[in-house]
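Form P-L/3: holo structure prediction, ligand magnesium ion.
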Amino acid sequence: TRSTRPQRLLAAVQKNATRGDPRSVVRAIDQFCRHKEWAMNVGDEKGCILDSVVSEANPTYVLELGTYCGYSTVRIASLLSPNSKLITVEFNPEYAKIARQVIAWAGLQDKIHLVEGASGDLIPKMQEMFGVKTFDLVFLDHWKDRYLPDTKLMEKCGLLRKGSILLADNVICPGTPDYLEYIRNSPQYESQYFKSHLEYTKVEDGLEKSVFLG
Ligand SMILES: C[S@@+](CC[C@H](N)C(=O)[O-])C[C@H]1O[C@@H](n2cnc3c(N)ncnc32)[C@H](O)[C@@H]1O
Ligand SMILES: O=C(c1ccccc1)c1ccc(O)c(O)c1[N+](=O)[O-]
Ligand SMILES: [Mg+2]
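OUTPUT (holo model):
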């Protein structure tokens, strides 16, 4: 039977990237998505903004909502300090299977914990499963109608502390209107919009960075 796009993306990584070199994995995926097949990774343009936010935050605990093939997972983890951890959540088992292999090719399996399941079910279990108290940075990049409910859930579960950063992809395209309205009007957050483009295209999109004020 015909291969899937994530399988072809993994094959491109294994063909063109160097084992143990995360940035070559990121480059190989961007090449594949720009010249062969578009895929919904955060991509190289928004990826540079993601890199700067991650580097400035220098987080110990990171939560990623939406792994897909592990592109942003590898991109973020490649910038983390030695004793830091990235927990990434993915409910599609086929995507999780591919992501584990991409993460392994990058040599980052010790920094990354990929947990399979729905964000709404897993967020309340983060403290008991991983011994994490609060997250220093959360990257929201799963289905867009889940950004707001999951943000409220993280607040309720006490997973955010004064200074925690929420970085949300796709706030313009496909768009997350209810999340944007909430976060930009909430006195509990200080938000900033980073204008960019939908991965590998000229369509406008951007990232919203919001700092939890506690
Ligand atoms: C846009 S892709 C993630 C892309 C990835 N962050 C990157 O930039 O490389 C969105 C992913 O989130 C997953 N997803 C969507 N809603 C979810 C949920 N509620 N819980 C867990 N995973 C979810 C989808 O299966 C899909 O793989
Ligand atoms: O929703 C889509 C989408 C919609 C239709 C077709 C393909 C993708 C999408 C597009 C760009 C993204 O960066 C992204 O994170 C997503 N997503 O699924 O979460
Ligand atoms: Mg996205």
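COMMENT: The chain has a mean pLDDT of 98.
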